[in-house]
Every structure is written in structure tokens, then in C-alpha cells.
## 1
Amino acid sequence: MRAALVRHSIDVSALLREAASPAHGATAIFVGTVRDVSEGRAVTGIDYSAYESMAEREITAIAAEAIDRYGCPAVLVEHRVGHLDIGDVSIAIVAAHERRAPAMDAMRYVIEEIKCRVPIWKQEQYADGTREWVNPTRGHAA
Amino acid sequence: MKITVRFFASYADELGRSTVELPLAEGGTVSDLMCCIAALPGAASLPPNPLVAVNQVYAPLTSILASGDEVAVIPPVAGG
């Protein structure tokens, strides 16, 4: 298991290699990317920031919970912070298991929990030059 | 006692700072600290009961604080 905040580009292929094992029959991957529109507004980029020490602690706890709940021998999570352009990978989750159902359930668990409880924020930049903090509680979800 | 308070993202923008050290009476709670925070310039835009973490763990308003604790006032999270 490994979970980290990173400032570099996320290499999904490297994560897949890291998780690989002959014992795994299924590997579920979630890749989040920056899209070019939000709530009907043209987006040019996103700045991700975090309460970094707590965010890493929470993401690590979530990955451990996924392992406990679904018995996945390998769960890897990288979440990017800093400035991201359109199409950049903001998060990658890899969950591997002998069977597909636990792998997919673990992957889903990790992303949903991260969205609920990890202190990470994003400020969207718009084509009109303005910027705004994303607040999912106002129906402005990612 | 002194409590270090950290603000992030939209809350840091609204208060114009990312950290402040506030005095609190011995035995004071998160709720007591929130009353002190509410008196800071720019705090009027904070919700009445924001998420709070004490030493990097989410904590209820009733948590009793100790000298040297780090309290983070956490805006709605938006990771992923």
C-alpha cells in the first residue's frame, strides 16, 4: 500500500507496474483529470492545495480501510497538488485483487472517501480571467 | 494557553491570513475557540460550525484543547 500527495505528473503506467503481481487477476484504476468546463464555465486550469500533513494521513488511512474492507493486497493512491492544466491527471487510484469485484469496490471506496474527507481544495481558473474555490456543498461538485 | 489556528483555501482568503495564535483559557473547547475566531476581521463570512481538525484529526466542537494544539478550520473539501 502506498498513498501520497505529489507535485510531479502522475505516471499511471508506473503505478500499474508497482501494483503488479502474478496473484492478481484484476486491477481497477481510477484516473481523475482536469476538464475544460465546470458548471457551464470554460476552465483553463486548476490549482490544488492541501493541508498536506493531514491530507496524506487521511489518504493513507482510507487506503488501509480499503485493504481491510475488501481484502485487496495492493492499493496505491497518488493525488497531485499545485497547478494543473486541462487534461492533467489530478488523482490516480490502483486497487488489485485476485477477483474483479473487490478490486472495483476498493477503488470506488477510495475515491468516494477522498472526496468526502481529505482536506484538499481546488481553485478553478476560468477563460474570462476569474478564479473561484470549488465548493461541493453548493452543488459545485467535481 | 496559546492555540495555533490554521486557515486554508477560501477561509484563508476571507480572513487574509493562513495562521494565527489565539489565547484560550485552560480547559477551553473547540467551541470556545470558534468564538474567538468569530471576532477576527473577515470571519463573518465563515459558516457558524465549520469542520475543525485538532492536531490533524477531525474533532467535535466539544473537544477540550491543550496548550500547543494546532487547530485547522477546514473549508468544504474538494479533492479528486
## 2
Amino acid sequence: MQRAGRIQHAPEGFLDPVQIAEVQAGRRDFLRGAFMAAAGMAAGAARGQNAGDPAILELPEHSKALGQPVAARGYGLPSQFEKNLQRRESPGLTRVGGSSVSFTPLQGLFGIITPNGLHFERHHQGWWDIDPHRHRLMVMGMVREAKVYTMDDLMRLPAVSRMHFIECGANTGMEWGNVAVPTVQYTHGMLSCCEFTGVKLSTLLDDVGFDRKNGKFVLAEGADGSGLTRTVAIERALDDVMVAWAMNGEMLRPENGYPLRLVAPGIQGVSWVKWLRRIEVGDQPWATKDETLHYVDLMPDGMLRQYSSIQECKSVITTPSGGQTLLDKGFQNVTGIAWSGRGRIKRVDVSFDGGRNWRTARLESPVLPKCLTRFNIDWVWNGSPAILQSRAIDDTGYVQPKINQLRAVRGTRSIYHNNAIQSWRIGEAGDVSNVQAY
Amino acid sequence: MTWGKFILAPFFVLAAHAGTYPGVGRPATPAEIAAWDIDVRPDFKGLPPGKGSVAEGQKVWDARCASCHGTFGESNEVFTPLVGGVTREDIKTGRVASLKKPDVARTTIMKVSTISTLWDYIHRAMPWNAPKSLKTDEVYAVVAYLLNLGDVLPDDFVLTEKNIAEVQARLPNRNGMTRDHGMWDLKGKPDVANPPCMKDCIAEVKVGSSLPEQAKGSHGDLSQQSRGVGPARPAAPATAVSDTTLTDLARRKACLSCHGVDHKVVGPAFRDVAKRYKGQDGIEAKLVEKLKRGGSGSWGPLAMPPNPDLPPADASALVRWVLGL
């Protein structure tokens, strides 16, 4: 049978239950007919069968009229058609919004940069929009001279810009025991990545003349209600820790610590103290609440791992991922992100059969230390059920583990540091769901 | 020459506080340091002198803490329980045995290994909505009372900076922390190894878990949570969730922190409020007043806190919205 050409118009928005039922009954070709009907082929029919896609034959309004002027919106926003991508809470995770988390919609992002408005949040006593003119940073403790800096002072110092991921230690934590949430936003969304600009903490420690012989630890403290404090190793403090005021080219957002936060590359997010007000140099760790009561990992023998700061190598496929439906068989770019708190990503492998066989994915540049790395791999889906997984390897040679391997050592109540390989099952209807396969 | 004096003088001033970056920052004053240097270490460095008895602690607790944590520190309504799960044997060994049991909810007293942590945290962050409002002696009293609720301290105990080290020696989980792991040091040794096999790696793939049936609707309408163009579509829609400007107002004013529209959180569901007060005369004015002054515990043990700064127009709009649900 001759066809004038393949005219396809995918359904807008989502597949409705009728369409899904048709697909499940094996009538995939029904979709093409349904698409054409949905696209309103009546106009085409009037000109003779299959004259063409009305989206082409009938010029849209935007091709025939004047659009909006420059600076219609002084601070631009995404298209109205992108409104589905929001950071969201996970219902039931906490009881109060002031001490809670909002998750980044990883399923909708590209590359390695997280847009500032979609950066995940974790607050302990709510967030504020602080007046930068009244904000102060005090650096004191085992130093030659305790100093106070204004924002004006800090922004005069030698600045550096570095791209790093920030991941909450509890990311993926609700799935230590079993699958609990439906989409990659909730399984992995306590994760973001920005280019941060600020002054190196080592610059400030030099400026105050810290005690090089006896100063072994640094305390970072926030100016919010929680006054959140965390101990940072002096080795980290002198290496790549920053005191930052900017994310992705603009000042920090209020929800992310405006006007000042700590950036502690490779270390779990709780150490990246927001609304940073104080740095203290000391010779012992502080056992603060957020490294003694929380952010401690419960082991099967009942001991709690304390000061477990580093986020280990991890990856996840972001499309296709749970809560999505593939439109059709055929070629598909499978994409995801990988990261390691110990250095650069060396390689990412992807499996399409639940871990039996693996192929190596392409890494997109730049590949930077302690930063997200984007990977892509070609796939032709033949319509059979499949289980997709990604497995990252970092430049220490460490390989991302399977969930059963992690459980064998750490049990199921660790809460933190779940860096297991993530599995997405694709059904014959193209529906993608969250499973644990090993 | 006067010119020379003016040019040289600022350099002398700068050199006195040179650091490495002339003119940037200034010395902190003792009062400033005292205002912010509030941390307390496990060896009690930084702990201010003071005292508080269990009895005094109970008074502070009932007034400032019980509304979130329960009269006995047992509440699971707002935050997880503070006390419970600890035995006399634990106080002897310093390791809480029930941490080994899979089904025991982990309370604060079960985990905390250093009393300084409790003192430091309560002082800097509590009460949750009014942090740093407790005086030094009140913090001592509250810590004493909390440990009394946890059966660590007797009813007549008075906690001071002089005896706090003895109390540390009684903490049930004082020996329960370990640093035996590779996640502190950048070059630390991982505890799990996964050989990167590429071909015929497993005989049979086991699917150990998938999304439980009862969790399927748990995260709202997934069809609205993914982009509608591209290689995939979001999942089919569930029942629609409304999103009015009044819902936004309720969220911004923190009403939704404690009230769900359809379900109880800390306070009653708004739909239940609408049901109870349906058709009552003058109820709108009464509820607007209640919003302003706070509740009286007519729905449960926790009374709604007052909202004195809520503009009357917003209060009326919110009450009318709730009653109409």
C-alpha cells in the first residue's frame, strides 16, 4: 500500500487510558491513526486525503503576526509549556514544610547545569531573603586575629569559579529497603549542579593567619534559625572548599543561601552551610546535631557511622525514567548523569537487560572533578520489555555498586549514602516504572 | 610637607591590620565574638556556666516544648520521638541494644552520643519557631528534664557545667559511634566492591521490588510532572488536583505546614473543618478571630498557634475558602 509520506503528530500532553489500552492490545499502528485524528486532519481531508500536516499547511499565528517586544519581562521565565517542571515535595516525607526537602525534576533537565529556579532545597528552619548589606562573616577560633567581613569585603577578594554537584546525603534514602517513589525526581532529585563563584576558604584562613600546626578542623555555622553547624576537615578546607555568593552567573537564590554559602565539593549537602555567618578553626571535631543525631549511618550491628561526609560515585538514567511512557519502538537516545565526590567520572556503562550485559556510554564534555557528567547512549527499542540500568566508574577505579551489594554490608536502615545502581523497567506499552533489579 | 604626611598615613593604618589583602575585613570585637561563638564541643569547650533542675525543666518543657514534642517527649505528630527505646542495661554499656532491632523507631535518646550535642542544639535552634529564645539556665533545665524523661537522670537532679561530664558518662549511646569507614577521608577505602563485568554477568535477573500498589497515587498527578514533548510522555493522568490562588496563600502563610486540604497533618483537614462548621451562624467571624488569637485545642492536644500578623483581608479570604470546601 502506497503512503504519501509518514505523517506523524504525537499526542499532546499524555497518552490517555484509551490509547494506552490500544497499545497494550498490540495495536501500535492505531497510534499513528489516532495521532492524525488528534491533529485534526479534517482540513487535510477537505483538500484530498493525506494532503499534509495542518501544523504545516495552515500557517500558525506566530508566522503571520508581530510578537512581543524586548524586555517584556525584565527577568525572563521558561515557556508556559514547561510548567510541569517544578521542584516538588515528596508527600509524607516530613510533616512540616520548614524542615523539609524539595526535589529537582531531573527528568526534564539537560546537560549538567541545574537551572537556579529548580535547584533542590533542604531547610531545617525555613528560608529567608536576607539583606546582603547587613550580612556578616566572622572567621575566628585558632587564628592570629579574628576578623569580620561584609559582603563588600568578600566580593573584593580573589574570586574563583568552579562547577560542582551538591547532593544531600539522604538522596535515594527512602529506597534502602524497597522501591518507594515513582519518578527520578523523587528517587534522585536531592541533587543539583552549578557553577559557583566565591572566594576559596583557604584565602580567608590565610588572611586571618590560622594556626597551621594545631588547626585540624573547621566549623561552619549558618545565620538562619537553625544556626546549622557542621565540622569540615582542614584538608578539605584548604583544598577546594569555597565561600560562595554566586550560582550559575547570578547571586545565590534566597532558597540556596543568599548572600553567602559554603561550597564543600564532594561532601554531602548538609555541610554546604547556607546563609553562612561564621567559620571557626579548632583542633577537635564538634559533634554538632547534624553529624551526631542526623546524618549518621545506622549499621546492622547497631553502631552509627559518624562523620561520613563523602558522596561516593553514583549515576542514574534520567530519560527514559519512572513515570514516563515511550511513544514508540525504534531509535531512542538514552541519557543520564553520573557524579563522584572523590574525583572525575572515568566511564559509564548502561545495561538494557537488568544487568546481564553492558555497553559503554558516551560522556559529554566537560568531565570535571566532583561535578555532574552527562552520558548518552544509542538504543533501538524493539518493543520487548526491558530493564535499563547505568553504572558509573570514577577515577579511583571504584565502581557504583548494586543495591544488594550495599545492603549486604550496610543493611537497610542506613538512610544515608545510597549510591546504588538504579533500574527502570520498560513494559510492552512503553510505560517506565521504578524497580530494583539485581 | 603636608602632602607627604597625608600619603603615608593610610598605609600605616592598613599595615596594622594587613592580613594578605589590605583594606578587606576588620578585626572582630570581643562582644561580636561572644554574640556568635555559641558552639559547645564534646569536651565542653564553649559551654557557659549555669544550672537547671529537672523540676525547672518541666516548667520550661510544658510551656515551650510540649506542643511539638509531647508532654513526655513521646510525640510523633510534628517531629519524631525524643525518648523511648532505652534500658538500664544500655546506660551501663553505653550502647543502645534496640538499635540492632529492625522494627524499633529510632528516638533521639537512643542515638545521641554526646550531651554537648543536646545542649548546643537546644540552645541554638529551639524552640523550632523561636530559636535562641531560651536563657542559659533554661537550656540546662530542659536538658536535665529531657534526660529525666529518658530515665537517665533522677527527678531531683540539678544539671550544671560542673557535673555535666558525669552525665555524659551515663548517656545510653555514648559508645555507639564509629569512624571506621572510608567516607571522611578523600582517599578513604570504600566498603563495597562491584567488579565491572560487561557480558553474561548474571544468570537470572531478580526484580526484588517494584512500586507498591498503595504507593501508586502517592505523589500526585504524574502526568503533570514531566515535559509533554520529547522522546517520552508523562504517565496517564490521575484525578485532577486543583490549585487555586487561595491554596497558594495558604501555603505562603504556612497553614499547609499543619493542615492538609483532605487529610490531617498536625491540625484537622480543611474539609473536616468545613464539615464541622457548616451552616453555623457567625462562624466566619469566629474563625477569623481564632486564626488571629490561636486555637484552644478543640480538635486535639495541640492548639493552633496565634497568627497576629495575618492581614484581616487574608484571614477572611482563607476562612471563606476553607468553609467552602
